[in-house]
């Protein structure tokens, strides 16, 4: 029996058929008109959106509001609970860098961070010594959307670059702040990717510019005080399938230009001794070969999968000749031991690796070669490696948490192996880890693979199949969902939910092959793994199929659309946040912002009939049929450049038209935000409270 009662008639999108033919295959799209012709301009000025499209989106929002009207009090209660678990005036532990230590903090009631610095050895809890550099709440005043890109200081600590996006479109504006007077200079740089890298003298910096397709394709050199129009083009990447980033080094000796797609990378480096030189190519791009670099004094340390090192190895090369011919192995490839990232300091090499789904921090003495690890004993946990802001140091910083253990921040002396607890995440409303259980179970997939599933539930939850369950999944781009502490999900767990994360193929949870087995022609493994996780939880009586609410966002939203088509009867409801559901149309349109860079992940259906058919077989929008779909809600942002608003809009329209007896199908479009939703920390909680209220309502326990 549906929990949605007395709903008004839902909006019905007009059908305006548009057909296309590729590889002799013709498809018809009834809802292509929902894509605004002027979408690129609209991302920067939403007032120019076609009135017919705006009217339809507003009608969908009104229908969604009616469907969720009886959860308003629940949403408020959930929001209050989540907010109550956040220390409102929380502050970071400042990171030492030269004469200062830099940190960030919030004020009670504040939505945005404040960036500050204190004297290097000052007491971080002494607010009287804090020098406020940037007040995010002040900068965000009067804006519907505002996201900071942080602040980066010069080597002499006199100036800082800071950036902001006030549309949600991810076009960032950069400003330069005098860190003594706290006044911004006249320089204004538009349409950047956010952030920049200072030259050592603090008189210029490097940044990337976003093109009209939202791709950071050019690196520019900006001289402080000059107009943006006079900035020098340092390097341009002409292949539309590649992104660029620009970064600096702890030694201030080199500028890194990182060029990459999802499976291939290339670095060009610029010595800060000659800022006008041509960037030097390190190793020419080779399809499927990735590498990343960090400085090590007279050598570079390079993390790479070259030479069939599928789970990556670390090599070194002389700074004077860093080309591939001079790469010398330092940390060998070991199958099943995936090296995730690395950093180097004066006396130590550090890397984060993962074995059997669990992270470990490894430390190597650069002189003796002796290695040791930092590891923990829980069944499932998360580690974060922050490193240090200085090169000549023995002390690095890392974080630890689990589903039951609040985040802990440590300083670690790599020479003495002394571990100092700096901070434990406070939960003001209270949290007793002993009240909860975290588990790591394994679900058998269709082909015999063992899929890890991380669980969190209250110790007093009855596990007889009656508990509702929120099952979360992502499964793309090699991204691993950490088993870390999440105060928000406690609002579900405290109401009797089992909270589950399915570590499905498409991520790197079990090594690089776990990623390869969930992409391109093997993409269906991702969906089948998720369904197997649901089946296992039912088999082991953690829940029942009519009690499982599935949730995923972005590429995880595509997962939601796929499993809805494949096994609608196995879920009580589905939450699809900014869902990438119109996969075939998007991959067929090389004018869209992210299409060419995405081909290595999904396939190129323009050039290949085989790859066209792979995508056509699972693309959620293309596979909607008359089926007993459960209730589904899709959430989107009008200015989202990653998953454009029309994808979930078209999907919901087709679901409603094709399966009118199923659902209901709801669409919530944030008319003033992009891919990440609202920007403020409490505004974001309102969105999570809405999603959880939907889950609770669908589970029938509201």
Automatic annotation (TrEMBL):
Residue ranges constituting the Peptidase S9A N-terminal domain according to the UniProt record: 11-424
Tree of life domain: Bacteria
PROSITE patterns in UniProt: PRO_ENDOPEP_SER
Domain (Peptidase S9 prolyl oligopeptidase catalytic): residue spans on this chain: 485-700
Pfam families: Peptidase_S9, Peptidase_S9_N
GO biological process, any: proteolysis
Alphabetized SUPFAM superfamilies for the sequence: alpha/beta-Hydrolases, Peptidase/esterase 'gauge' domain
GO MF entries: serine-type endopeptidase activity
Region Disordered, annotated ranges: 1-23
Protein keywords: Hydrolase, Protease, Serine protease
Family under the similarity heading: Belongs to the peptidase S9A family.
Entry protein name: S9 family peptidase
Organism listed in the record: Peteryoungia ipomoeae
